[in-house]
Structure formats: structure tokens, C-alpha cells
Amino acid sequence: MRKYEVVFVHRADLDEEKSAALIEKFKNIIENHGGEVLKIDKWGKRRLAYDVKDMKEGVYIIVHINAKPEVATELDRVFKITDDVLRHIIVREDV
């Protein structure tokens, strides 16, 4: 298994329940595919450098995981089809 850092930005206009549900959705994808969530950091609402989908602000979430490359591929696929996610990036951490 490899270590990854997953960063995604979701819409700032989501309420706490929907935000928590979105984070839980991605956590479940990781765990159901054999990955392990090490840490979740919520950076909160930040101003975006430029408008994304007509949004000026987004909520930043950083997740550190141990997973196989297939899990990262599946996460990337789901991020792309989730409307509430404005931007995402998955980076493999070197050990």
C-alpha cells in the first residue's frame, strides 16, 4: 500500500450535514476498497484564486490515506462525477 494525500474543495454553500455526508462518502469509498484513512483535516472556507463553477469560495478538505493505486483511481473517478466537488488532487507521498 502507498501513502496518498487527497485534497478536494467542495462548494462553500453546503450546510454542515451535506459537507459531513460528502466527506463520509469519500471515506467509505476508501475503506470499502481496502484503503485506510489516516487523518482528515478540514481547513474550512477559503477564497478561491479564480471563480470555479461561478463560486468565489470553497471549503478545503485534506485526507491522508494508505491505499492501493486502484483506490486512488476510483476516488479520482468519483470526484469527477460529484457536482459538489469544485477541484481535487491526489498526490502520492514519497517515503
Major sheet: size, sense and barrel closure? 4 strands, antiparallel
**Helix content range:** 25-40%
Low-pLDDT segments, ≥5 res: none
Helical segment tally? 2
3D architecture notes:
This protein is α+β, with helices and mostly antiparallel strands. It has one domain (2-92): Ribosomal protein S6/Translation elongation factor EF1B (Alpha-Beta Plaits, 2-Layer Sandwich), CATH 3.30.70. Helices cover 32% and strands 51% of the residues. It contains 2 helices and 4 strands, in the order E-H-E-E-H-E. It has helices spanning 16-32, 69-81, and strands at 2-11, 36-52, 55-67, 85-92. The protein has a 4-stranded antiparallel β-sheet with strand order 2-3-1-4, covered by helices on one side. It starts with a strand and ends with a strand. The mean pLDDT is 95.
